[in-house]
């Protein structure tokens, strides 16, 4: 018979009655002076009772023991204070039993426990405390010294906030600090840290009075703006500058560094254009952006904007500027739809296995409350200024008081929101790490600790953890119910207007039917149906006929809810287009294909509302997929050439590119074009856009200077040069010029540079379409080098300074725009560089390998899965392309077939020349085409550039559907196929690239 496992040693019963479970608890109590031979030492009973009420007595005891070991000399003082001072006892033991991170702080900083005796620091004194830490009497601190001082002072004040927040757990007679007050104190502390960090940054930049030439305001956003901060939060900010923006930007960057290293991460990604935009903008710059380019979610974010640090007057002017924009945002087209779509998108990103434990983003989580409140604020707050609060709780109370939300609903939502925020605070306090994940129910010890930290006690024979879990689930369900009730107003009985027996149902029955079809938000679907079918117009009557069919078709797509939302967007945008509904009514194939496209690819509706004519091609596969790239390029150039000026020419080119992108995307998704055809079509239209923009820019600049002092050619590089562009690719180029007859090099270079800069600027201007970025960073000397060189200058540079990576980059160089004679001469001039006589010596081969290893290390995003990263992953695009290019550098001088810009052609040439086995070549070509198509499919599905393939959810299902997997197939089978194919290719790369 197997032996029973030995029971874990338990503490003595006399110690266990105080909540200790550690077998060494009595020994520790004796060492600390709290336990005599037969029980509590004199005067220690109240201390042990406090331990018993601590969220985790053993943890609190170990923390006290560590404090004693860290400062033995001060221990008698602390011991006496704990026995005599109930307030200190409650605060300290509550902190020790809750937060291991704050315990570490107390151990590392002996004497900091004294902060918890007495009244503590008043919140209004936080700024002065932190400023004093970085500006000691000896002089202001900078660099690492300032960061260390700010970190210690900030953590000390955070300790005080936490102690005040937790004290009621150990001292029942102490009133619990309201959630709103805790959040307000944390926000005040964050504001003080921003101000202190700004002071350090200003001092670091202040030599010679440079800092006086600029003004900088720090505007708090998000939870900080709403005075709702957690213990561990990113603090979202926007910077507003005046005067010397370079100085202001350096100060802002310094503040980000100082505060980020000392206190918390400061995130400026909510600024115009996000991380790609300027860190600091003037008021005028912000105004211009919000007036022309801002999207709905940006106005929603601005609802919480609040000056927090820096120039208060400038920050106030910024808030005055954006306030009217925020409260008119609801008038934007599709405003409510955009907000609802955003919430669904956020929710879909939560992993399925965590959705029931996600406090913040999951169903019934904090975001459900915040989105519902903000949507109601933005809709009704235009006329009712009482709703214009940045605080979720205050706004919710105002909505209830104003009748926009039932009083009972508002009270329930507020209680559930505060419950989840309290749980979130306790989870973050333990290790001072940002987390929003409720513990796994199987981890009973962690649940018990969290329950006690939240003030939950046993009830009716159930332990604290079980009670907390029940409460957590109850609050999630309540929030989700109220969210759906508020977020998807008005009432959904409008589905009865659809004259189809299947949809002549009550509201409850309609929602059940849509849920059975696969709609995850049936209430939202019914909302869209009502919007499309309301009224007695002809348009509404046709929609009533179409929708029953369309709903079933969308149900078979990866994202039925997103597809219906997209259909509504397209229908509303094309409401005045006379042929739109007629085509859908009379051509069933168009409806079927449109449903597949809208439920699969988010990029399609974005393009379709601006290029609706492509919809008519869906009924004719030959017209959809049959246009030759050359014909498209000619049409685009001719249309741009007919325009009267530069901007008009570029607008015409953009319009035709939009049409072509949508046409190719539709044909691609419907399986009518293979990978080479897609890449060739996208590359051809990009080249045509460059040709049109270059010609228009030359005409414009020539008119300004009275002639053309230079001939200009654009050389395509990278994927553009290889005619292998995807939907998310930039255009890598080189600009080369030649002086016209009678012109000198200086005049020619000045003219050509102005033209090149104009081309980059007009094409790279912000647009709703996929980006048109012209990247010239592969030029000699990179970004530090001149944008344009003469042909002779390129020859001289490559002859004297060219490195092996530049020769590798030139392998895909080809003429794409401008003067063809000059372009062809450039290509002929670089042939000896990219096809070096004698190939590469061993040192250069090693250099290529070293560079590839460095690129993989530096450019692979942190946390990315290398098995599904299409660009840099194992067996992905970079693996295959670098392998082909290394062999081209080594042997193209003697094997003409290797002198190609196409990666698949170069690989096949390797096989034909006997340099690689045909099977190996087959594996590489297959992996390259698979990675290219998968990357394109993921970009279309997500609606924005992406290199890593999705590994779960609707986006993975969409990518799998593009590859022919049915709705009944597990999309994970596609990932298995992808990994299997690229794994084989990677093994080939290891042999061909790294082995001689």
UniProtKB/TrEMBL annotation:
It catalyses: [glutamine synthetase]-O(4)-(5'-adenylyl)-L-tyrosine + phosphate = [glutamine synthetase]-L-tyrosine + ADP; [glutamine synthetase]-L-tyrosine + ATP = [glutamine synthetase]-O(4)-(5'-adenylyl)-L-tyrosine + diphosphate. GO terms for molecular function: [glutamate-ammonia-ligase] adenylyltransferase activity; [glutamine synthetase]-adenylyl-L-tyrosine phosphorylase activity; ATP binding; ligase activity; magnesium ion binding. Residues 341-487, 852-993 form the PII-uridylyltransferase/Glutamine-synthetase adenylyltransferase domain. Keywords: ATP-binding, Ligase, Magnesium, Multifunctional enzyme, Nucleotide-binding, Nucleotidyltransferase, Transferase. Residues 1-491 are annotated as: Adenylyl removase. It comes from the Bacteria. Its EC number is 2.7.7.89, 2.7.7.42. Transmembrane segments: none annotated. One of its GO terms (biological process) is regulation of glutamine family amino acid metabolic process. Its cofactor is Mg(2+). Residues 91-315, 592-826 form the Glutamate-ammonia ligase adenylyltransferase repeated domain. It holds the Pfam family GlnE. PANTHER family: BIFUNCTIONAL GLUTAMINE SYNTHETASE ADENYLYLTRANSFERASE_ADENYLYL-REMOVING ENZYME, GLUTAMINE SYNTHETASE ADENYLYLTRANSFERASE. Belongs to the GlnE family. This is Bifunctional glutamine synthetase adenylyltransferase/adenylyl-removing enzyme. The lineage of its organism: Bacteria, Bacillati, Actinomycetota, Actinomycetes, Pseudonocardiales. The gene is glnE.
């Amino acid at each position: 018979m197997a032996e029973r496992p030995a029971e874990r040693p338990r503490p003595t019963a006399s110690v266990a009655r105080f909540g200790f479970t550690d077998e060494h608890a009595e020994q520790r109590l004796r060492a600390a002076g709290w336990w005599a031979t037969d029980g509590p030492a004199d005067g220690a009973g109240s201390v042990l009772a406090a331990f018993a009420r601590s969220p985790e007595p053993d943890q609190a005891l170990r923390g006290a023991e560590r404090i004693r070991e860290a400062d033995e000399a001060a221990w008698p003082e602390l011991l006496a204070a704990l026995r005599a001072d109930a307030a200190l006892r409650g605060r300290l033991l509550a902190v020790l039993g809750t937060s291991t991170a704050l315990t570490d702080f107390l151990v590392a900083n002996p004497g900091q426990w004294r902060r918890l005796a007495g009244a503590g620091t008043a919140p209004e004194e936080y700024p002065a405390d932190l400023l004093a830490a970085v500006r000691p009497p000896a002089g202001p601190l900078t660099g690492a010294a300032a960061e260390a001082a700010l970190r210690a002072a900030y953590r000390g004040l955070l300790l005080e906030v936490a102690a005040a927040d937790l004290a009621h757990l150990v001292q029942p007679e102490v009133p619990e600090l309201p959630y709103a007050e805790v959040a307000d104190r944390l926000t005040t502390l964050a504001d003080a840290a921003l101000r202190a960090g700004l002071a350090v940054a200003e001092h670091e930049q202040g030599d010679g009075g440079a800092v006086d030439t600029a003004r900088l305001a720090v505007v708090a956003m998000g939870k900080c703006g709403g005075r709702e901060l957690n213990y561990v939060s990113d603090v979202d900010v926007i910077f507003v500058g005046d005067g010397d923006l370079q100085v202001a930007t350096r100060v802002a960057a310094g503040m980000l560094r100082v505060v980020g290293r000392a206190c918390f991460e400061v995130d400026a990604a909510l600024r115009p254009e996000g991380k790609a935009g300027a860190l600091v903008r003037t008021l005028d710059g912000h105004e211009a952006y919000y007036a022309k380019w801002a999207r709905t979610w940006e106005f929603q974010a601005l609802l919480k904007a609040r000056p927090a640090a820096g120039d208060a007057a400038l920050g106030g002017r910024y808030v005055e500027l954006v306030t009217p924009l925020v409260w008119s945002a609801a008038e934007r087209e599709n405003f409510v739809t955009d907000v609802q779509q955003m919430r669904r998108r956020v929710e879909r990103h939560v992993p399925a296995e965590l959705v029931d434990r996600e406090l913040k983003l999951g169903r019934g989580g904090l975001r459900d409350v915040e989105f519902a409140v903000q949507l109601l604020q933005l809709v009704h707050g235009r006329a009712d200024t009482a709703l214009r609060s940045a605080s979720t709780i205050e706004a919710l109370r105002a909505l209830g008081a104003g009748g926009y939300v039932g009083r009972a609903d508002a009270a329930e939502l507020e209680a559930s929101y505060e419950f989840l925020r309290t749980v979130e605070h306790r989870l973050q306090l333990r290790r001072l790490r940002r987390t929003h994940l409720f513990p796994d129910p199987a981890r009973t010890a962690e649940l018990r600790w969290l329950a006690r930290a939240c003030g939950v006690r046993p009830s009716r024979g159930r332990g604290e953890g079980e009670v907390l879990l029940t409460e957590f689930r109850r609050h999630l369900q309540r929030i989700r119910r109220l969210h759906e009730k508020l977020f998807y107003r008005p009432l959904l009985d409008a589905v009865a207007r659809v004259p189809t027996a299947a949809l002549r149902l009550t509201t409850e029955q309609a929602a059940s039917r849509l849920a059975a079809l696969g709609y995850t938000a049936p209430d939202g679907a019914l909302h869209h149906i009502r919007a499309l079918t309301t009224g007695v117009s002809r348009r509404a009557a046709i929609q009533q006929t179409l929708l029953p069919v369309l709903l079933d078709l969308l149900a078979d797509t990866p994202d039925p809810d997103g597809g219906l939302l997209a259909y509504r967007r397209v229908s509303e945008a094309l409401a005045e287009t006379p042929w739109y509904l007629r085509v859908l009514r009379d051509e069933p194939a168009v409806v079927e294909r449109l449903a597949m496209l809208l439920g699969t690819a988010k990029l399609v509706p974005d393009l379709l509302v601006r290029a609706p004519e492509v919809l008519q091609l869906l009924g004719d596969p030959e017209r959809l997929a049959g246009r030759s790239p050359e014909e498209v390029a000619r049409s685009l150039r001719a249309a741009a050439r007919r325009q009267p000026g530069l901007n008009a020419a570029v607008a015409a080119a953009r319009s035709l590119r939009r049409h072509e992108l949508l046409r190719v995307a539709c044909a691609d998704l419907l399986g009518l074009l293979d990978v080479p055809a897609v890449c060739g079509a996208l590359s051809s239209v990009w080249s045509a856009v460059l040709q049109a923009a270059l010609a228009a820019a030359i005409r414009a600049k020539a008119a300004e200077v009275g002639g053309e002092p230079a001939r200009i050619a654009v050389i395509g590089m990278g994927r553009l040069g290889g005619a292998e562009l995807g939907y998310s690719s930039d255009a890598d180029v080189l600009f080369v010029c030649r002086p016209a007859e009678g012109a000198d090099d200086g005049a020619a270079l000045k003219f050509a540079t102005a033209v090149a800069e104009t081309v980059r600027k007009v094409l790279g201007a912000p647009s709703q379409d996929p980006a048109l970025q012209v990247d010239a960073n592969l030029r000699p000397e990179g970004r530090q080098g001149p944008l344009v060189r003469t042909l002779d200058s390129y020859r001289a540079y490559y002859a004297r300074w060219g490195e092996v990576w530049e020769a590798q980059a030139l392998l895909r160089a080809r003429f794409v725009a401008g003067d063809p004679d000059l372009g062809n001469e450039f290509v002929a001039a670089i042939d000896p560089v990219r096809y070096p006589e004698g190939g590469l010596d061993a040192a250069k081969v090693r250099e290529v390998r070293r560079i590839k290893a460095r690129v993989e290390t530096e450019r692979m995003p942190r946390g990315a899965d290398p098995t599904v990263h299409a660009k840099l992953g194992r067996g992905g695009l970079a693996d295959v392309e670098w392998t082909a290019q290394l062999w081209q550098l080594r042997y193209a001088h003697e094997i003409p077939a290797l002198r190609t810009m196409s990666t698949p052609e170069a690989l096949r040439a390797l096989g034909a020349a006997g340099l690689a086995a045909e099977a190996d070549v087959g594996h590489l070509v297959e992996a390259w085409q698979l990675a290219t198509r998968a990357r394109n499919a993921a970009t279309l599905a997500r609606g924005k550039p992406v290199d890593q393939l999705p590994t779960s959810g609707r986006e993975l299902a969409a990518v799998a559907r593009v590859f022919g997997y049915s709705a009944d197939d597990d999309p994970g089978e596609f990932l298995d196929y992808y990994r299997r194919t690229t794994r084989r290719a990677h093994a080939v790369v290891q042999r061909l690239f790294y082995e001689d």
